[in-house]
Amino acid sequence: MIETFEKWYNSLTEAQQKELLDHIFNRKIKSLNEGLFVGPIGKLEKGLFTGPVGSQSVCPTCGKPL
């Protein structure tokens, strides 16, 4: 089944692939973000979690990023 899907998916244009993934993530998958930062899943961009990197400082006590 996976091989058949892969062949079909790879035969789609890039625009069709994006439209399909947007549909799946926005209509078929329930939010995976229950709890903190709850909200709709954003549009997929090239690379995961693209965006500015937070502070490089860490807490001297626990080592968590600030």
Overview of this protein structure:
The mean pLDDT is 73. The chain has 2 helices and no strands. With 66 residues, the protein is mostly helical.
Give the structure's gist in a few sentences.
The protein has 66 residues and is an all-alpha fold. It has two helices and no strands. The radius of gyration is 18 Å and the shape is elongated.
Radius of gyration: 18 Å
Number of helices: 2
Residues in helices, as a percent range: 25-40%
Give the integer mean of the pLDDT values: 73
What is the end-to-end distance?
45 Å
Contiguous low-pLDDT stretches (5 residues minimum) are: none
* Beta strand count: 0
**How does the major sheet shape up?**
none
Shape by Cα distribution: elongated
Beta-strand portion reads under 5%
Order of helices and strands: HH
Given helix and strand content, the structural type is mainly alpha
Keywords:
2 helices; 38% helix; mainly alpha; 66 residues; elongated
Helix-strand layout with pairing:
Blueprint: H1 2-11, H2 14-28
